[in-house]
Design a protein that fits this description.
Helix content is 0%, strand content 56%. It is mainly beta. Strands 2, 4, 5, 6, 9, 10 and 11 form a seven-stranded mixed sheet that branches. Strands 1-3-8-7 form a four-stranded antiparallel sheet, with no helix packed on it.
Length: 117
């Protein structure tokens, strides 16, 4: 059973930075991609950033140039460096991993990020 645990969230002022971490445990067989999503009340969960098995990265337009996803595959940990944070980045952030030929999704429990003065 795969378990994901996020850390690093919290309250930050606009323009500030946070670094989210996702630590995975369990059998990580055939990792197809690791990512970060976010969700606000009343809205669908949206993809923020993803790094593929081969290292290709994807970013939502709203975070390009401000967020960076990285991964330490040996430690089954990945990160989201968030700079120049804006109030609209406020959300619950979820880490995600897709495993196996069926691209099965596994999720963390979510962590709150609040950008406010």
């Amino acid at each position: 059973q795969v378990q994901l645990v996020e850390s690093g969230g919290g309250l930050v002022q606009p323009g500030g930075s946070l670094r989210l971490s996702c630590a995975a445990s369990g059998t990580m067989f055939r990792v197809n991609g690791r990512g970060w999503y976010r969700q606000t009340p009343g809205k669908e969960r949206e993809l923020v950033a993803r790094i593929s098995r081969g290292g290709t990265t994807y970013y939502a337009d709203s975070v390009k140039g401000r967020f960076t996803i990285s991964s330490d595959n040996a430690k089954n940990t990945w990160f989201l460096q968030m700079n120049s944070l804006k109030p609209e980045d406020t959300a619950v952030y979820y880490c995600n991993v897709q495993l196996g030929v069926g691209y099965t999704d596994y999720w963390g429990q979510g962590i709150q990020v609040t950008v406010s003065s």
